[in-house]
Amino acid sequence: MPPGDLFASHFLDHKAPGARDQIAERLRENGLVTLDGIATRDAALAFASRIMTISPHRDSDPDGLTTIRDTQRHAGRPGFAGLGNGQLAPHTERSGLPRPPRLMLLVCSQPADRGGECLLTDGRRVHADLLNHRGGEAADVLSRPQTAYFGAGDGHASQVLSSHPDGRVSIRLRFDALARWSPIVQPHLPGLQAAALGHQQSLRLNPGQGYLLDNERWLHARTAFVGDRVHWRVLGDPHFELGRGFAPALAAPQPAARVEALS
């Protein structure tokens, strides 16, 4: 899927009859839905409430919605990079919890003057990439329990890839200072990073546009930006049944054209 087609390929009219059921089906199939026509904070919250049980966040308002913008107070603080204007590496939202929220909604209120594109990586592609290189050793090591620790002192010991009894796989990842790794994982981090970056797809949202993703499948990131970029974010668990993670791909996909090193 070419990067320019990401929004159109996953778009769904959330105001159409039966949209809630269609959203549930799209999330089960692809883990991602793109949206338009969510012009206000109240509209973002109302849509999220239809889809999920909202989970409060450290940075959210009491209703669970977080305004994501450069506060000019959080530069350099581990775990607060989203409230600055710098680049964000691919990550799972709230990876330091024993059970991260399944869904994340992000809606654009005001785009940046320059930069600030969303970068999305399908974890299914990352898994296939790792599984089909070096005899699958990387995928095996990254699946071993408690080989990664995400978060601060109250974080959680886990692994990048988790297999479930039905054969599905989920991904949990971050690359910042709040990620610590077992020595057996260290040799595979360059390959993991290359896969997470190599399959990124860029998505620049206009006001009222957004996306809803499965946090056990898709990694999200952001480019650095200039200007007053304002987005609304809501996290939570679906009101409908959603299988864990994703069904593994049978073959390694071709990476996207955009590949760059993390700073």
Report the sheet with the most strands, covering strand number, pairing sense and barrel closure: 6 strands, antiparallel
- How many structural domains does the protein architecture include? 1
CATH topology: Double-stranded beta-helix
Low-confidence stretches: 257-263
- Which structural category do the helix and sheet elements fall into? alpha+beta
Number of strands: 17
Order of helices and strands: HHEHEEEEEEHHEEEEEHEEEEE
Radius of gyration: 17 Å
**Distance between the first and last residues' Cα:** 27 Å
Level-2 CATH architecture: 4-Layer Sandwich
The CATH H-level superfamily is Clavaminate synthase-like
Strand content: 25-35%
Q: Total helix count?
A: 6
Overall residue-averaged pLDDT value: 91
The shape is: globular
The CATH class is identified as: Alpha Beta
- Helix fraction bin: 10-25%
